[in-house]
Q: What sequence folds into this?
């Protein structure tokens, strides 16, 4: 099973963002996770199409995994694709017409994902499971980095992996929130294949060494 780490640049040092991104790329990272927040769906504001377009100038090869934590995701899709997004993940809680939103994202020839807040049940995936490339299980309440992993999400990840295997689904199970060197092995055992790491990747200031330690956990 191929496991990938997708560092969340929300946890990076914004004064050294270009340096951190290049360090990650040189260390073998293939994708970075970019949170777009509107201060409405979540009580925080971060990134937008203009900032993502600037980040794309830093790297033409990294996959830009864009996570929309916004109240009206449909209005951002066109501009995010133009800015350089390779994957757009939307929250099921914000999409009145989820099927249509997923279809719109995929019409641009990029990947589509759906995200579930901690209290949102796996059943919401059922009728779009064949359409999406990934399902993101939020293991903290979305909006802020540095939160602790919610233990009850382990069962949720397990349920999603059982749904994937029993239906022969070709999708990534992504997890985001409170992932660190102590628990990453556990979420992989539960079935996660795409691990978003934020604060734990950047907090000690030595991104190169921390990335080496995380890579040792997935090799």
A:
């Amino acid at each position: 099973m191929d496991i990938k780490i997708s560092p969340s640049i929300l946890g990076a040092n914004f004064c050294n963002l270009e340096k951190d991104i290049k360090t990650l790329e040189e260390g073998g990272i293939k994708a970075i996770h970019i949170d777009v927040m509107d201060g409405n769906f979540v009580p925080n504001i971060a990134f937008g199409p203009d900032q993502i377009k600037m980040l794309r100038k830093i790297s033409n090869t990294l996959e830009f995994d864009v996570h929309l934590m916004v109240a009206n995701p449909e209005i951002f899709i066109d501009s995010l694709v133009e800015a350089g997004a390779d994957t757009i993940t939307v929250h099921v809680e914000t999409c009145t017409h989820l099927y249509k939103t997923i279809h719109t994202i995929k019409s641009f020839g990029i990947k589509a994902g759906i995200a579930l807040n901690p209290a949102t049940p796996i059943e919401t995936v059922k009728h779009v499971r064949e359409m999406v490339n990934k399902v993101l299980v939020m293991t903290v309440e979305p909006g802020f980095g540095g939160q602790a992993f919610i233990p009850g999400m382990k069962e949720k990840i397990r349920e999603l992996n059982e749904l994937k295997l029993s239906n022969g689904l070709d999708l990534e199970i992504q997890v985001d929130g409170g992932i660190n060197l102590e628990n990453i092995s556990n979420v992989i055992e539960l079935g996660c294949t795409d691990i978003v790491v934020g604060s734990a990747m950047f907090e000690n200031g030595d991104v190169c060494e921390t990335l080496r330690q995380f890579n040792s956990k997935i090799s």
In short: Residues 81 and 108 are 7 Å apart (CA to CA).
